[in-house]
Amino acid sequence: MKVLVIGAGSIGSRHAEILKNSVETAVVEPRDDLRHKFETSSGLKTFSSVAEARNWLPDGVIVAVPTDKHEAVIRELACFHGPLMIEKPLAATRTSVSNIMKIVQNRPTPTFVMANMRCHIGPRMLKENIGKIGKVFSAYSNFGSYLPDMRLGIDYRSIYASSREKGGGVLLDCIHEFDYLNWILGASTLRVAALSRISDLKIDVEDHATVVLSHVSGAISTVELDYLQRVKLRGCRLSGHEGTLIWQSLGKKPENIKITLLKSGSQIPDVLFEGGYDLNTAYESYLAEYLKVIGGKSSSVLLSADEAAKESNLLFDILDANCVRAGTQKLQENKT
């Protein structure tokens, strides 16, 4: 089995390093410096373009270029017929989402979007144990990390997350929170949202977002995201008729995780998991599901392109409300 990874940046390199342990792997990277550096460090075969990789005949292709480049790369992949995996989010604009969906709907094999948090021990154990708390009434999900620390040694102002044009901003960047809530509680619609740029970071996107959703299960969820936490924080609380499930994650490499179940009538929580966790485990599990599909099997875990398009368009609905522009203008006025 052969898998081609498009892009040798941080995420593309991660995917390739994981995949090379189980399948034949190659990487496309147009930048000479990045390509040579990756080839030297990984020992993997590399190509300078999609066209150059055509005769390598991969069984699957992973698109791991910056979000605003997704559409252009996917157009180039018409000659590859194996299952396609696209890094999250699907696209940087609503128009690009529509264009990508027109392309992938004409492909002979399925297209998926990277949603590795579905395989993370936190959301996975919440989903596995949700039956223990009865009907779920509400959920609170949070993610926070300090933007300048996202890529060590790289100026945060140059990365995609800092730029609206490149598909950045904490809302689109942290689409995982919306996806795993939909995975656990069912599809959602928007109730209310507030986006702000409240820090002094040199960015043209929101660094804080609060979103309230209604799910088809009847649950209401609140999602809070930010680029402001000096220590990475992540977690989710599910409140049900018969108890509460809580997942808390602190730090990274490793994450310090605690998952507890509080049953109605008991003051002592059941600890379902406590300890360190390597995020690579979630990536490995998700990519293993993708390899199963390439091999002709099915997967109930992978995020389909159709589902990803709906999730992206929900977030574009929020952005189209001009919350960011209004919040940014107010911030600038307050500083003058």
TrEMBL record:
Matching entries from Pfam families are given as: GFO_IDH_MocA, GFO_IDH_MocA_C3
Q: Which residues form the GFO/IDH/MocA-like oxidoreductase domain?
A: 131-245
Task: Report the InterPro entries cross-referenced here.
Answer: Gfo/Idh/MocA-like_OxRdtase_N (IPR000683), Gfo/Idh/MocA_Oxidoreductases (IPR051450), GFO_IDH_MocA-like_dom (IPR055170), NAD(P)-bd_dom_sf (IPR036291)
Q: Give residue ranges for domain Gfo/Idh/MocA-like oxidoreductase N-terminal.
A: 1-106
* Superkingdom of the organism of origin: Bacteria
Record's protein name: Gfo/Idh/MocA family oxidoreductase
